[in-house]
Write a structure and sequence with these properties.
Heat Shock Protein 90, 3 domains, 58% helix, phosphorelay sensor kinase activity, coiled coil, membrane, Sensor_HK_Regulatory, phosphoprotein
């Protein structure tokens, strides 16, 4: 018995069957007929099921990530709101503190102005009457004591003592007057009420004219004062009195803190055409840790001792110098070696 469909599938010829063979035609099942198609459909469905599974996993992971991200966002929003509230409160505190400091600064300036103005009038009177007393004393009393036929005796020593005391009063009165003037200058500059009489000026001429006055800092001292004007100096637009005030303050500092050696004032032009003025001395110098603060208002260098005497400035001279120089767009710096001296340098842009 032979299956006709099988013989066709394998390419057998039914005519070659032996005699008596029975040829049957078994019906083909649907599974067998469409096996390839069913396999393809099964593969496609399997792929779709896997894809759906992966998609569900991805969706679940995305939802989990979105939930976690939302939680983090809420936490960040709460943190930002809390931090913002803290910063807002801190800002209000700083504004209140700044307002208080501004009031205190205005009060300080008002007190300084009032005290300085109130001190200036009696100081002028004290100095004026001191000079009158000294003049009358030298004119009428000293000749009587120093006369050859004078019988004053010990009055000569008393006269010398009185004259020295008057000189001390005059010296200290002038020093206090300078302090009062520095107070007024500093307060006016800081408040913006200072008057600036700017003109185009020649620094070389100003320094030459001021040299005799600057040499007065070194009268009766062993310090040599030198002036060096290197070549033509660039003209600057500035208030001549303010420019000389800076130079005078720097030279005066050099004279104050130098007991022997040299104080040198030099001026030259920089490579960029600016004016460069330097004041160097061979004095006590400034410690490195304090050098950066010497231009601060009321700052005084500690332990500045010369010949056993502690030297103190007012803490205003260099501060005034810095404000004047910076007002004209310049720079001022300091270099120093303790025990060997200091160099103060300021530069100003040229008029051109």
């Amino acid at each position: 018995m032979f299956d006709q469909a099988a013989m066709q599938r394998y390419g057998l010829d039914p005519g070659r069957l032996p005699a008596g063979a029975i040829l049957v035609n078994v019906p083909q099942s649907l599974l067998g007929r469409y096996a390839l198609e069913i396999s393809a459909v099964a593969v496609v469905m399997a792929v779709m099921l896997v894809s759906i599974g992966l998609l569900l996993v991805a969706v679940r992971a995305r939802r989990r990530a979105e939930t976690e991200l939302a939680r983090l966002n809420r936490g960040l929003e709460e943190l930002v709101e809390e931090r913002t509230a803290q910063l807002t409160e801190r800002s209000r505190e700083l504004e209140r503190a700044n307002a208080e400091l501004t009031k205190l600064d205005e009060l300080k300036t008002a007190v300084l102005n009032t005290v300085s103005h109130d001190l200036r009038t009696p100081l002028t009177s004290v100095l004026g009457f001191c000079k009158l007393i000294g003049r009358d004393f030298n004119k009428y009393f000293i000749p009587l004591v120093e006369a050859p036929d004078s019988t004053a005796g010990a009055l000569g020593d008393r006269a010398a003592r009185i004259r020295d005391n008057l000189a001390i009063i005059e010296y200290e009165g002038e020093r206090l007057t300078r302090l009062v003037n520095d107070f007024l200058d500093l307060s006016r500059i800081e408040s913006g009420n200072s008057l600036w009489h700017d003109v185009r000026c020649d620094p070389a001429r100003l320094i030459r004219e001021a040299t005799p006055v600057l040499q007065g800092y070194f009268a009766d001292s062993g310090v040599v004062f030198e002036v060096d004007l290197a070549g033509p100096l660039p003209e600057v637009v500035a208030d001549p009195d303010r420019l000389l005030q800076v130079v005078s303050n720097l030279v005066g500092n050099g004279a104050k803190f130098t007991r022997q050696g040299t104080v040198r004032l030099s001026a030259s032009a920089t490579d960029s055409g600016w004016l460069r003025v330097a004041v160097s001395d061979s004095g006590v110098g400034i410690p490195p840790e304090e050098l950066a603060r010497v231009f601060e208002t009321f700052y005084q260098v500690r332990d500045n001792t010369v010949n056993g005497c502690v030297l103190r400035g007012s803490g205003m001279g260099l501060a005034i110098c810095r404000r004047i120089v910076e007002h004209y767009g310049g720079t001022i710096t300091a270099r120093s070696t303790p025990g060997k001296g200091s160099v103060f340098i300021f530069t100003l842009p040229s008029a051109s």
